[in-house]
Hints:
With 335 residues, the chain is α+β, with helices and mostly antiparallel strands. The protein contains eleven helices and eleven strands.
Amino acid sequence: MPRNSREPTLARQWELLKLIPGQRPGLTPRDLRERLAAAGHDVTKRTVERDLRELSVVFPLECNDTSIPFGWHWRADASFDIPGIALAEAVSLGLLEDLLGQLVPPAFTSALHGRFNAAADKLRGLSQNRYAKWSDLVRYVQPGMPFLPPAIHPGVLETIQEALLGRQQIRAVYHSVGASEARERVLHPLALIQQGARSYLLATSSDHHGPIQYALHRFQDATLLEKPTVIPAGFSLDGFLAAGGAQFGQGATITLKATVSDDLANILRETPVSPSQSLETRDGVHTLTATVRDSWQLGFWLLSQGPAIVVLKPAALRKRLVSALTKTLAAYTDD
């Protein structure tokens, strides 16, 4: 028999073996036919019955004939693991690969390449199945400017992962932003944080006893030390994030008051900046009030909105924004 004509039968029977339960009462041929159809193999009940008879000659399968309709299951003493990938898993992995490719450096996803390839093969083999087409109908689009993930030096991620799991210190060569050259430092790794396209190590050091974020792509080298990590008293990753630590600020909260445009007001009603947000409209003017973290990210967002938002309070934040906008305007003003 030609190879291509045999492949659909092998794929269907392999899928069928994965669907058969491990104990009584088992599944009827009708049930199995429906599940095969959902997995991309639309065949008749008679075909399923024939497959079951053929497979039971080779594999430890049993037909539960104590009740009608008969159910098929693996024999009680059978121990057989069927490798493979289900349709739903293949679709999910295909979408995950697309998402991770935009957010995570390749060093993070290399261990998943085998599963991603298996998922792609599965979807190609079931190209006519409507469920398999789901990955062609859905895409993730990053908010704002789409940046490519920065490259991480070979071996750095693996060393940091091992240090985190083993609670060990590392000796790192790190090039800070604005520094003329990289310098060596000893770090106490606490956690990894993925923020958009960038990956950060959260760690303490002799220079900073509080947790600091170090961009993984700025590590030029990392060496594992046989010394235990000293974890700050009361530290937890969730607590750090809840306090706004990942927003590049000091964690202080402020009450933001600003006027916003019609379009931005509509966006904020759908996606508030905080649970405490309120929007009041009087005489066509929308006034936003919200408790937020005073952080670099807040300032970045406010500046990115241009004239769509005008900060009224707090005065210190308004002053910072006016200074930044004045410098920006000066940079665009011709002599």
